[in-house]
């Protein structure tokens, strides 16, 4: 299927990066075993200073891991797919920038849930480098505010209940309509509206491949489902397709 395709849309989730040392949400030992999911709700973040302090503690902990993480064999296989001219684009739910670190062009990667490498002011829209804000946290701030307007600062990621980035969503749906194959990698496919992107690809007639350790609600709509490690499966699969 990969060998015969020219416009592949890849949809990735947290499972793609677990073997780079970044825990996902829902696997055993994942973030939901450690943190309270309700602390990730946007309205709570806005309403309570205490939640913001807790959120920043959790987020700084995970940023320290993501900052050091390196792309794994599956990320690198996607770079090969782009170099071979077969990749329409990657729509990722991940906030870890590992597709960029693997060498994929920024214009081929849509970060549907934003990135943890920047911080935004929710009032004036200022964008700050994450490391600069981390220095302020290390110096004792607990829930930093914008130095320009005093607004609430938040990592540039999308929390539950926070509006999705409209341009990113529109482009993701355009790619879903245009692709001739959709490959889902390491996603439980339960987080919406992101999970509607592969559904849209199937609706447009593209065949669907899912590679995920656990079952997903879309397995019965896929042309090929492989339950297993994404790094073990994807690398050889792409290599075989590119040399066939
Ligand atoms: P999820 O936690 O809901 O699901 C991850 C899926 O990946 C699970 O079904 C699991 O079986 C599978 N998986 C885990 N390791 C795997 C591996 N090595 N090989 C194959 N499959 C593997 O994650 P999701 O679907 O991305 O959705 C949840 C949210 O998680 C997203 O909104 C995303 O923003 C956020 N998130 C991102 C990161 C990151 O950036 N790396 C980390 C944690 C959470």
Task: Compile the SSE list and pairings.
Layout: E1 8-12, H1 31-34, H2 42-47, H3 49-68, H4 73-83, E2 87-92, H5 98-101, E3 109-111, E4 114-121, E5 127-129, H6 130-138, E6 153-157, H7 166-178, E7 181-185, H8 196-203, E8 208-212, E9 224-227, H9 230-243
Parallel strand pairs: 1-2, 1-7, 2-3, 7-8, 8-9
Antiparallel strand pairs: 4-5, 4-6
Helix pairs in contact: 4-9, 7-8
Bound molecules: nicotinamide-adenine-dinucleotide (NAD).
Residues 13-15, 17-19, 22, 24-27, 30-31, 93-96, 113, 186-188, 191, 212-214, 229-230 line the site of nicotinamide-adenine-dinucleotide.
Terminal CA distance: 11 Å
The CATH topology of the largest domain comes to Rossmann fold
Determine and state the CATH class of the largest domain: Alpha Beta
How big is the Rg? 18 Å
Shape: elongated
**Alpha-beta content class:** alpha/beta
**What is the CATH H-level superfamily of the largest domain?**
TPP-binding domain
Q: In which range does the helix fraction lie? A: 25-40%
Bound molecules: nicotinamide-adenine-dinucleotide
Strand percentage, roughly?
15-25%
- Spans of at least 5 consecutive residues whose pLDDT stays below 50 are none
The whole-number mean of residue pLDDT values reads: 95
Oligomer: single chain
The number of domains is 2
Count of beta strands: 9
Strand order of the largest sheet: 3-2-1-7-8-9
CATH architecture assignment of the largest domain: 3-Layer(aba) Sandwich
What does the main sheet amount to?
6 strands, parallel
- Taken in chain order, the helices and strands follow as EHHHHEHEEEHEHEHEEH
Total of DSSP H or I helical runs spanning 4+ residues = 9
């Amino acid at each position: 299927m990969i060998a015969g395709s020219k416009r592949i849309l890849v949809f990735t989730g947290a499972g793609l990066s677990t073997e780079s040392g970044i825990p996902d949400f829902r696997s055993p030992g994942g973030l939901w075993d450690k943190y309270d999911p309700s602390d990730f709700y946007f309205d709570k973040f806005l309403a309570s200073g205490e939640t913001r302090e807790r959120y920043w503690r959790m987020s700084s902990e995970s940023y320290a891991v993501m900052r050091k993480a390196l792309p794994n064999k599956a990320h690198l296989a996607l770079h090969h797919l782009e170099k071979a001219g077969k990749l329409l684009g990657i729509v990722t739910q991940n906030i870890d920038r590992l597709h960029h670190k693997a060498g994929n062009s920024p214009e081929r990667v849509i970060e549907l849930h934003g990135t943890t490498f920047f911080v935004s002011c929710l009032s004036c829209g200022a964008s700050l480098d994450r490391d600069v804000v981390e220095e302020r946290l290390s110096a004792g701030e607990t829930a930093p505010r914008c130095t320009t307007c005093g607004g609430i600062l938040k990592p540039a990621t999308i929390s539950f209940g926070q509006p999705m980035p409209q341009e990113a969503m529109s482009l993701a749906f355009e790619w879903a309509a245009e692709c001739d194959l959709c490959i889902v990698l390491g996603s439980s496919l339960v987080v919406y509206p992101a999970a509607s992107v592969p559904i849209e690809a199937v609706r447009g007639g593209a065949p669907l491949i899912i590679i995920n350790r656990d079952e997903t609600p879309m397995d019965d709509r896929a042309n090929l489902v492989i339950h297993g490690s994404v790094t073990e499966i994807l690398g050889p699969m792409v290599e075989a397709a590119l040399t066939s």
